[in-house]
Write a structure and sequence with these properties.
The protein is an alpha/beta fold. It has 15 helices and eleven strands. It has three domains: 3-31 and 199-268, Helicase, Ruva Protein, domain 3; 49-195, Rossmann fold, CATH 3.40.50; 278-361, Orthogonal Bundle (Arc Repressor Mutant, subunit A). The longest helix is centred in the middle third of the chain and has 18 residues, at 235-252. The chain binds adenosine-5'-triphosphate. This is Holliday junction branch migration complex subunit RuvB.
Length: 369
């Protein structure tokens, strides 16, 4: 199914299919091809993440001048922020080939041994979702990263012997959304760790202008600004919303991504001015209107919005918490003043007092419907 229609997918029981949202930061298989076409190829073309870009640029340039592979690189951060893109860039900057695999694909040490033993000198090995590798493969990886050696076990039981196999120097680029899950010995083998953060609107505007050019669609400043502001700081979401606005512009408009097309298309896909979708707003509505702002337990809240607790917790809540609409308290979830304002409701006195807001600040908010 084209991803643009995914926000409409509902399960048979009427609940929202959590994997099917237009605002899902995780990529879908259908998207890989179009995403590949939109990836920046070199560090100089990569907008945003200035710290990681400068640090990585230094590491790569120094390695290039020394004529030896750089330290292993770990990239961490939420989905859709450019970890895979940067891994490809590392190989491109070093002018070396890249081998791509992922933690879930390496369930046995033997799987990893097969990959490692076929690497050429200086090759880049990209290990996506590295936190999902099996323990035995992790142990083999430590050794390979440190000593460029693997011990291949031949035979079984007491007669098994380890045959050391020398490897040519290579560079591992690991990517993870859960750096905290990596065992310390593995984390320590990476000489450089870059943490990717959400992008600001100005960087998303730059990314969208470039993507529009690559997609061959005309986009004006107001159109890209409108899309950037609703993309949850995530290039993958920005590029996806851009494609939906382009669709709208081609079907209903003049083919130009402008403010009118962006507003109409994003309204059609239920993405509001703050980048919240139907599920996000349903959570805020339930919290404020039904439970007086909370605190309320997760499962009660989930029942009120007709979703699984897990969906509310993993799909809607992280962004609502990060943007300061919802607080997670020991007694449950609570709405902040921003949540009340977002719904166009007056902020209750108690919430305003807790957040030490002047009471005159508690009128209807920016995003009154
Ligand atoms: N800084 C950037 N500039 C331009 N496009 C970007 C940037 N970062 C990410 N993108 C685009 O966003 C999409 C997703 O990026 P990428 O696959 O690198 O993310 P990721 O962090 O590896 O995600 P995941 O954790 O899901 O694998 C790609 O189309 C990529 O081109």
């Amino acid at each position: 199914m084209p991803d643009g229609f995914r926000s409409e997918v509902r399960e048979a029981d009427g609940s929202l299919d959590a994997t099917a949202r237009v605002l899902d930061a995780a990529g879908t298989d259908d998207e890989r091809v179009v995403e590949a076409a939109l990836r920046p190829r070199r560090l100089a073309e990569f907008p945003g993440q200035p710290r990681v870009r400068d640090q990585l640029g230094l590491v790569l340039e120094a390695a290039r001048r020394r004529g030896s592979p750089p330290d292993h690189v770990l990239l961490s951060g939420p989905p859709g922020l450019g970890k895979t893109t940067l891994a490809m860039i590392v190989a491109a900057e070093l002018e070396r080939p890249i081998r791509v695999t992922s933690g879930p694909a390496i369930q046995h040490a033997g799987d990893l041994a097969a990959v490692l033993s076929s690497l050429d000198e200086g090759e880049v090995l990209f290990l996506d979702e590295i936190h999902r590798m099996s323990r035995s493969a992790e142990e083999m990886l430590y050794l390979a990263m440190e000593d460029f050696r693997v011990d291949v076990i031949v035979g079984k039981g007491p007669g098994a012997t380890a045959i050391p196999l020398e490897l040519p120097p290579f560079t591992v680029v690991g990517a993870t959304t859960r750096a905290g899950l990596l065992p310390a010995p593995l984390r320590d083998r990476f000489g450089f760790t870059g943490h990717l953060d959400f992008y600001d609107v100005a960087d998303l505007v730059t990314i969208l202008r470039r993507s529009a050019g690559l997609l061959g669609v005309e986009a004006d400043g107001a159109g890209v600004a409108e899309v950037a502001g609703r993309s949850r700081g995530t290039p993958r979401i920005a590029n996806r919303l851009l494609r939906r606005v382009r669709d709208w512009a081609q079907v209903h408009g003049e083919g130009v991504v402008d403010a009118r097309a962006a507003r109409a298309a994003l309204a059609l896909f239920d993405v509001d001015e703050a980048g919240l979708d139907r599920l996000d707003r349903a959570v805020l509505e339930a919290l404020c209107r039904r439970f007086g702002g909370g605190p309320v337990g997760l499962s009660t809240l989930a029942v009120a919005v007709g979703e699984e607790a897990d969906t509310v917790e993993t799909v809607a809540e992280p962004y609502l918490v990060r943007e300061g609409y919802v607080l997670r308290t020991p007694r449950g979830r609570a709405a902040t003043a921003a949540a009340w304002r977002h719904l166009g409701l007056a902020v209750p006195r108690e919430t305003a007092q807790q957040e030490a807001l002047p009471l005159e600040d508690s009128g209807p908010g920016r995003f009154a419907p």
